[in-house]
Design goal:
It contains 17 helices and 16 strands. By secondary structure, the chain is of the alpha/beta class. Strand 1, helix 3 and strand 2 form a beta-alpha-beta unit. It is globular, with a radius of gyration of 21 Å. The structure holds beta-D-galactopyranose. The site of beta-D-galactopyranose (GAL) has 12 residues, from loops.
Length: 435
Amino acid sequence: MQRAWSRREFVKRAGTAAGALVLGGAFAEFLAACGTGGGTTGGGKLEIFSWWTAGGEADGLAEMFKIYKQRYPNVQIVNAAVAGGAGSNAKAVLATRMQGGKPPDSFQVHAGQELISTWVKAGKMDPITSIWNSEGWDSVIPKDLKTIVSSGSDVWSVPVNVHRGNALWLSSKAASLVTPGTGNTLDNFLSGLGKAKAAGMQAPLALGSKGGNWQVTMLLENNIVATGGADFYRGLFNGKSSWNHANVKSALTYIVQMLNFVNADHPTIDWDQACGRLQAGTSVATIMGDWAKGYFTANNWKPDSDFTGIPSPGTTGTYMIVCDTFGLPKGAPDLDNAKNWIKVAGSKDGQAAFNPKKGSIPARTDVPKSIFDSIAQKFIDEFKTAQLTPSIAHGSAAPEAFASGLNDEMGQFVQKKNVAGTLANIAKLADQFLK
Ligand code: GAL
């Protein structure tokens, strides 16, 4: 019962709930008038837009391209990826292109609010319902995931993976820093970091906040789950929990404490460079989604040997959902090729090729667990019973206006460390964009 409820609640928050309509109606009509593409399955091009350029994520994408090439050897694939974690640059480029009537054939978009509130509500996507049905995805993609890529009676994109946003990565040098299981608390983590610092390591906790501070928003969302639990966290998006609450205050206070152990140059590096600090040995821990695992393995680290991954401190038993999907923009210039891309993204072989390199677990339930590394295997098991929480930083829980406002607020917060002021400002943002 408990598990069924939690999934329902997760879906309710991340899925079809109304959010702020970011793009205006006239804009949507303009885009709708931009025409449809031609049939070019036998050749032509396929332009895929994403922000997957870092180690691991770029490799995963390349694997999916290989599968596409095997099926459609005459199509020329154009990789239109724009660097910057979490789409910090890509999202603006995509918006400009869509506005200018130059959509790619398909683009990476997070399930939930980012897809539904931003693009679908503005009338800028074509539904993929008929592909979903003809490919038989109902029998292999969990209903919960289908729900968060659906609105009205249509499905609008296909999930390729599930990333875990609440993950702590530890190098083998950090062996005694954190105890998995019940010992994995924020307080134990901080005392472990304290020991590492006392032993001479300046910045045991690596952070990269370049590109808009979404990485700090991840620390906040994870810490809120740690201090308040999954129910409290989910309640923040349906009015059942108040942002102006001791749990949020405590989550912020824990960030201030973490910052004592963080590299001073964090505003100038992104998440992948922060992972690089573990490999360089100047840090031993980083809190990041499991695309970090993709980075480590792409850079020749062996899971559960050179490094390991566990739930971020205090969040054991929960799974912060970051779900990448691909949708079909209205006016996709190479429509048939785009539809075939959607099919590859949702296919068993596509997801089997993509996810082991990407660091995520597959959205499909029929991809064999045995092809994954030991950390992913643990995550696959944990996902089945965990309390699911949708990520704010990665587009699922809240409309874009709230997420970007929160990122800005967190940027101020890491500089000024003003817990009370930040709490008040976040509560104001919530009043403005979550009601
Ligand atoms: C997330 C995305 C992941 C990963 C990450 C870092 O928003 O869902 O797939 O790419 O950004 O770039």
